[in-house]
Specification:
The protein has helices at residues 24-40, 56-76; strands spanning 2-10, 15-23, 48-53. It is α+β, with helices and mostly antiparallel strands. The protein has one domain (2-76). Strand 1 (2-10) and strand 2 form a beta hairpin. The N and C termini lie far apart (38 Å).
């Protein structure tokens, strides 16, 4: 079974957010990766990774952001 997950990478003054559709194996692997990243981020400004099930609002925002990036790339070519 797959579900949409909201993934954030946060540091002191910036954050990157995405929504990915992942199956159970993929989310398990990504959670292991996040655990290791967070263990190695020893200082307050180093990025931390968080994974939660995505809300409808997060899915819609991610879709809009992806469309904006694609439109910007298209206008530059």
């Amino acid at each position: 079974m797959s579900a949409d997950y909201y993934i954030t990478l946060s540091g002191c003054d910036d954050k990157t957010e995405i929504v990915l559709n992942l199956d159970d194996d993929q989310v398990g692997t990504l959670r292991k990766f996040a655990t290791r990243i967070n263990q190695r981020s020893e200082f307050s400004c180093q990025p931390k990774m968080k994974i939660t099930e995505a809300t409808q609002g997060q899915i819609e925002a991610d879709t809009e952001a992806a469309a904006e990036v694609a439109k910007k790339k298209e206008s530059q070519s």
